[in-house]
Write a structure and sequence with these properties.
The protein has 7 helices and 13 strands. By secondary structure, it is of the alpha+beta class. The protein has an 8-stranded antiparallel β-sheet with strand order 5-4-3-2-9-8-7-6, with helices on one face. It has a 5-stranded antiparallel β-sheet with strand order 1-10-11-12-13. Helix 3 crosses helix 4.
Length: 288
């Protein structure tokens, strides 16, 4: 597939953004949140007989024309194309996600993220990290706390490495612990650099994307997540001050219910039957 037919306006319509866009911080924030509220974070191609390939026209066809989602390489890869078309200065970065099982970081190119420069200021963008991701771009010009509703993030720098960390609502404040999410450098990358790790995540028993069929999307005031045979509804606190806590409810799904749930709740219609999967992730043998 070629780039012919790739229409920026159709992409903006896909994410519910129809106003004229000039490259500004306000526009970046708006396009970022619109993308997260419209395009799911999902790996269903892997579990319905397909394969993800990092070619921008293919990603455009999947996310815009077929109204699907994708994991980080897809969502952030295509989002970078949109931002460039809108006139933003975009740099692809390599992230290494902290493994919650081993407490070690993944290898380089484990995660694709974006740095956007506007009038000499740098912003971290990420529309491809699912439930732990931030909703609005984070400033790379400060190491101080950056509040986003019930969560607080910070970007700590140490020996040339940047660390994304967060505090959840029950742990907020000056004395609260910071939980590391991923680390990255500011070395420019290109989409082809991520091909090997993209294939790894589709075939490794140490990857969540191989072990679990999943789909999640941000909602106003919460998040909706499908995993295996479960549908999880998450409601965020409304006060943002730690006085309330996040609540979750889980609905068990029968296999024949899943296609309807994906269509009704996420707007996803698969080309081939889904094989639901929710297996234990095996710790990777190599630690970073």
């Amino acid at each position: 597939m070629t780039s012919e037919g790739m229409d920026m306006e159709k992409y903006l319509s896909r994410i519910g953004f129809v106003a004229p866009v000039e490259p500004s911080v306000e526009a970046l924030r708006s396009v970022h949140i619109c993308h997260l509220l419209s395009v799911p974070f999902e790996d269903l191609t892997v579990h319905s007989g397909g394969r993800v390939h990092l070619d921008i026209p293919l990603l455009y066809d999947k996310i815009v024309n077929r109204r699907r989602g994708g994991f980080c390489f897809e969502n952030n890869g295509l989002f970078s194309w949109l931002l460039v078309k809108l006139g933003f200065q975009v740099t692809l970065l390599s992230g290494q996600v902290k493994n919650q099982i081993t407490s070690c970081y993944g290898p380089p190119f484990d995660h694709l993220i974006l740095m956007v420069s506007i009038e000499g200021r740098r912003w971290l963008c990420d529309v491809g990290f699912g439930g732990a991701g931030f909703s609005l771009p984070l400033s790379l010009e400060t190491s101080g706390p950056q509040e986003q509703g019930h969560r607080v993030y910070r970007l700590r720098k140490d020996m040339g490495m940047h660390f994304l960390e967060w505090q959840q609502e029950e742990n907020r404040g000056a004395d609260g612990d910071w939980r590391e999410i991923y680390k990255f450098t500011l070395e420019p990358r290109c989409l082809e650099d991520f091909v090997e790790m993209c294939q790894y995540h589709q075939s490794s028993t140490s990857s969540i994307f191989f072990c679990k069929s999943l789909c999640t999307i941000l909602k106003p005031g919460g998040r909706l997540t499908y995993i295996g045979h479960r549908l999880i509804t998450t409601i965020f606190p409304t006060d943002g001050k730690g006085g309330e806590t996040t609540t979750t409810t889980t609905r068990e799904l029968k296999e024949d219910e899943i296609p309807g749930v994906l269509a009704e709740e996420f707007g996803i219609m698969l080309d081939s039957p889904l094989i639901p999967k929710d297996e234990t992730i095996i710790p990777p043998p190599v630690m970073y």
